[in-house]
């Protein structure tokens, strides 16, 4: 969304909300933003009802998405928005929210920089410095950069990403000054929550299988609890929709029917269909009957059943019997 398009939407939204509410909102905005929006409002003569309604709806969706992200993170928001808006619209809203968050965070230039140039710059930095910078980057770009490091450094950087819980403006400012020719000075006034298992999982979900295996192997020796937490999060139950049909069928052969019925409680129709379409008509009918007979189930029990199925999927992947899509293409060997 261009800046002017965004400002015009904001102006139309304020017009639609009425003078009293808009005045309260305007008082909370920075002076330069107030001036820009006021100019837009002054230059709007007429707003079509359908245009007004569309902008109001978009505002409500973005507000709802932001609330979900604050409550439970991106994956939580995505799951709820999928049910409320459908997969395509939910993706558009989440993508927009991600872009807004990226623009508000430090190291903006690093996120826009050429990955190879950035890798060359970071190769001479300390692992803790590289880890902090990667925490602020897009997961796929961070994965590409991480995979370019020597194997022993990959594991050390990954370990630091997984154990970072927060950082301070002073630390960010110090790092930005060290590499001031590459990064902008976008330091927040409050401590930033960065890194952690979720960030590392997002990065590892985008790296190649060999890079992931190397990092996990070393983490199993150095930080076994962290390694176990990462392995359980790398592939979620909802990701089963990304598997090939033949691979889903292989998974279902190794899954207990009671666990499968429990795991499907409360999931989206897309996930249920990914399962049902790989069962015979008789098996599907039997599974649905078991789900109905089971009645309400505790969320913890459902999540435990889903983790059992994820464990089966990961095991089959490690054996090479199924294929989990990775961020990098697998090498072709003869």
Notes on the structure:
This is Flagellar motor switch protein FliG. Helix content is 70%, strand content 0%. By secondary structure, the protein is mainly alpha-helical. The chain has three domains: 3-104, no CATH class; 109-234, Flagellar motor switch protein FliG, alpha-alpha superhelical domain (Annexin V, domain 1, Orthogonal Bundle), CATH 1.10.220.30; 237-318, Annexin V, domain 1, CATH 1.10.220. Helix 13 (209-222) runs antiparallel to helix 14. The radius of gyration is 24 Å and the shape is flat.
How many beta-strand elements? 0
Tell me the CATH topology of the largest domain.
Answer: Annexin V, domain 1
Our count of helices gives 19
CATH architecture of the largest domain: Orthogonal Bundle
Average residue pLDDT: 79
What are the secondary-structure elements, in order, as H or E?
Answer: HHHHHHHHHHHHHHHHHHH
User: Please, what is the CATH homologous superfamily of the largest domain?
Assistant: Flagellar motor switch protein FliG, alpha-alpha superhelical domain
Please write the CATH class name of the largest domain.
Answer: Mainly Alpha
Shape: flat
Keywords: Bacterial flagellum, Cell membrane, Cell projection, Chemotaxis, Cilium, Flagellar rotation, Flagellum, Membrane
Organism: Trichococcus palustris
Membrane topology: Peripheral membrane protein
Pfam family, one: FliG_N
Question: Summed up, what is this model?
Answer:
By secondary structure, the chain is mostly helical.
Describe the protein's topology:
Elements: H1 3-17, H2 19-26, H3 31-42, H4 49-85, H5 87-104, H6 108-112, H7 115-122, H8 127-135, H9 139-146, H10 151-163, H11 169-178, H12 196-204, H13 209-222, H14 224-234, H15 245-253, H16 257-263, H17 269-276, H18 281-294, H19 299-318
